[in-house]
Amino acid sequence: MQITDVRVRKVAKEGKLKAVVSITMDEEFVVHDIKVIEGEKGLFIAMPSKKALDGEYRDIAHPINSDTRNRIQSMILEKYEQALTEENGEDQE
């Protein structure tokens, strides 16, 4: 599986949520609403989830193993940082 596209939508308001991301895999399958969140130890991703009847949130789509999660997270955070750099470059012009 290859991640063939990452689209980052930065969140304008202040808070822990920094961006919402969509990824495309093998140019055939898309996962929307992956969140980039600022945590105590830095940025991390949260997979799309919904609230269950018991009030807990459950991931709708997620990687099966930690290697895949790390690969997805690394690529998303790299694209997020790139988007911030591009935005800051435009602000300085």
UniProtKB/TrEMBL annotation:
Domain of life the protein comes from: Bacteria
Pfam families named among the record's database cross-references: SpoVG (PF04026)
Keywords recorded for this protein, A-Z: Cell cycle, Cell division, Septation
InterPro entries: SpoVG (IPR007170), SpoVG_sf (IPR036751)
Single GO BP term: division septum assembly
Biological function: Could be involved in septation.
Family from the record: Belongs to the SpoVG family.
HAMAP family in UniProt: SpoVG
Name of the protein this chain belongs to: Putative septation protein SpoVG
